[in-house]
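Onboarding guide, step 5: your first structure request.
Type a short instruction followed by the sequence, for example:

Predict the 3D structure of this protein.
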Amino acid sequence: MDTQIKNIIFDWGGVLLDLDFEGCLQRFEKAGATEIRNLVTGKNEAGFFHQYECGMISTPQFKEEIRRLTGNGLLTDDEVDAIWNSELLSIPEEKLRLLMELSQKYRIYLLSNTNELHWNSASGRAFQYGNTDVKEYFTQIFLSYEMKLAKPDPEIFRAVMNAAGLRPEETVFIDDAKVNCEAAVSTGMHAMHYIPGEDLALLFQ
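The system replies with structure tokens like these:
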């Protein structure tokens, strides 16, 4: 990797955390949300999924929107949680070891388009390795629902750099979505596109 790089910013879902996006969609469809695939692409900024990801609506409001979408007002909070969180699997142990190794040489950050339910559900268990927890892996953690911004808006990258005091030419961003990588590059950062399922460590050789 470029010798001037001092900071690495990781995406969460798809890069570190394995996802079952298709399985989650199928569970929504089984529950009655037949339009789910058109609503979760992330391209509809007026949609409530995007609003939830950007912290524009609360978790109780999000659950009410899910009940409306499925046409089933009797869905309990626990049932909504189970369907929504079924997308989240785990972080392979080798990726957790890689983070620990990289943190010996670089400052490591997390920047994720995520929401309160997903983060609270998976961040604790997913980063458990030995006696570590999520905060021990990263210098700082940046979450879209707290920042009120989401990738690929270039402003989220500028906000991260300002908050962490990073120089873009010393920073590389890693994401599984090319559009997010392109947005990072537009702000002066370096970027690397990761394809889920490949060996993440190969990016650093």
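Each response can be followed by summary notes, for example: Strands lie at 7-10, 107-112, 140-143, 171-175, 190-193.
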